[in-house]
Design a protein that fits this description.
four-stranded antiparallel β-sheet; alpha+beta; 6 helices
């Protein structure tokens, strides 16, 4: 298990990064299609979050849970994480990123939350876990880690 988070910034939070991501998602889809965008974010899950991916492949969810806690705390999201015997559930009631983008552009891309779903899929690829992401409302979701059958 990796004890240290690969990404654990503590400086100022730059929420406009999420606005740039929203614009980039729309550009990629418009120029190359949805499949290209999905592929990019799956690669982010495997390559950018390599240490989390490697831990998941080894059967360890700890770094991913710590990653969620760090970033959702950092961005002052309204969320909780329930760790059970059979699943881990991240419930996001107010995603600061989504709501910030909504302030910037009105309505975030219809595919804004796909970045989370595809990145989760990439992190879990080849691991004993599946990470399902359910969008439960505007700027709200549940991310569920379960062992594959």
């Amino acid at each position: 298990m990796s004890e240290k988070l690969r990404y654990a910034e503590t400086g100022e939070v730059h929420l406009d990064f999420h606005g740039a991501t929203d614009t980039t998602i729309e550009f990629i889809i418009g120029k190359f299609g949805l499949a290209a965008m999905d592929d990019i974010f799956r690669k982010v899950g495997k390559d950018v979050y390599r240490s989390i991916h490697e831990d998941l492949v080894a059967g360890d969810t700890g770094q991913l849970v710590r990653h969620w806690q760090h970033f959702f705390d950092r961005e002052n999201c309204d969320y909780d994480i329930a760790v059970g015997d059979d699943e881990i559930v991240l419930t996001v009631r107010h995603c600061t990123a989504w709501h910030h983008v909504a302030k910037l552009v009105g309505t975030p891309s219809a595919h804004f939350c796909d970045q989370t779903s595809r990145t989760n899929e990439g992190m879990a690829e080849g691991s004993p876990f599946a990470i399902d992401t359910e969008i439960t409302g505007p700027g709200a979701c549940r991310q569920i880690i379960r062992r594959r059958a």
